[in-house]
Amino acid sequence: MPSYEKEIQRFEGLNTQVVGVSVDSVPSHDAWQKSLGGISFPLCSDFYPHGEVTDKYGILRAEGISERALFVVDKEGIIRFIDVHPIEKQPNNEEIFAVLEKLQ
To answer: Which Gene3D superfamilies match (predicted)?
Structure first.
């Protein structure tokens, strides 16, 4: 998420809205983003009912946490790109920018 914040103007230049979603609570989101110095894009809590959104996207693990995943959803609500990767790995922003540029 911090890497998206660093590139927020580039995302906005591609007419894109970055949104973070996790199964953590709102107070947890608030504390986390404050520890980073703030986040300018929405952080959505999928805390209650626990994991409802992440489950619908197929990324809720049995132990109640979500996978680290990127989704590009176009203006019609169609998922155009999915990248699910290990939680400990940082995705490559250039890959997501390439996808976004193709959708322009």
So the answer is: Glutaredoxin
